[in-house]
Amino acid sequence: MKNDPKVAIISTVKGTLEELILFINYHLNIGIDKIILFFDDPNDNCIDHIHSTYKNVHAVTCTDEYWLKRSSHRPELHTERQVINANEGITIAKELGCKWIIHIDRDELIYSSKNFKSVLDNSESDVIRLSIREAIPEIENYKNIFEPRIFKVPNPSPRKVKVAKVFGCKSVFYGDNYFKGHTRSKVAIKITSKIQKIAIHQPLEYDKKNTRFIDTKEIKLLHFDSIGFHDWYQKFSNKPENFSKKPNVKRGAHRKLLIQEFMDAQSKGIQHLHSLYKESYMISQNKIFILSLLKMAEKISINQKLFETPFI
């Protein structure tokens, strides 16, 4: 019986130690072999703890010297830094003996009801796009962002959207958009000479003739976007600066509007921000019931023990 392939996840991180530990524990417990983290803040107080606690986590501190060697300067946009780190991560993963990499954010979890490594190993494809789900916040405050268990299912048909609106779920949609975060999922990429460079969501430079792509429903990407007021506030308070400095940066139209609404509410005070979060992100149980009947939302049960420190 052949061994499962070694898999690494790559992520540029910045956030609380508590949630980073949950992120690491979960992925090690589901079978990820190596976690390659790029600390966006070189003075992040999480770094020493991660170094001393986890032998299967490779931590890179993104100092000025690090950026000087790779980009002549630290890129202004977070997304630009992510792309550089993702490609550096592939080099590291290859040196660590990994066959596959998955580039994800700190607010995302890989989920499968079966052995996800077998799914990768049995595929003849070089790039496998995971099936995305977006977590639904039902309350304003959570202990951590990974608590929700109800998720939006992508790409509902126009008929389902119409029915949902008729039955009182109009506020769930933002214009034509059902998801608040990104709708394009992340991919598992086989480390091969066919792929020379990757972007955040997909290969960027690759052998277009011979690289094989496939979508899978067997591995899901769970996106915990803006879960709870604090997480939402932290994310959006960082976006207006980049948004105003580089107005031509490519963003979805609905994301630009969400950022603008945040800025407007912020100028009016904290109560307006709380009201905006409740209206824009939280979904009541009655509406979740309707969405579930329409198969636009589903419950995904995650074993809480997966968030505990692994015995490695």
TrEMBL record:
From the Swiss-Prot or TrEMBL record, give the protein name. Answer: Glycosyltransferase family 2 protein
Q: What is the lineage of its organism?
A: Bacteria, Bacillati, Cyanobacteriota, Adonisia, Adonisia turfae
Pfam families assigned to the protein according to its UniProt record, in alphabetical order: Glyco_tranf_2_4
PANTHER family, alphabetized = GLYCOSYLTRANSFERASE-LIKE KOBITO 1
Organism annotation: Adonisia turfae CCMR0081
Any one GO BP annotation for this protein:
response to abscisic acid
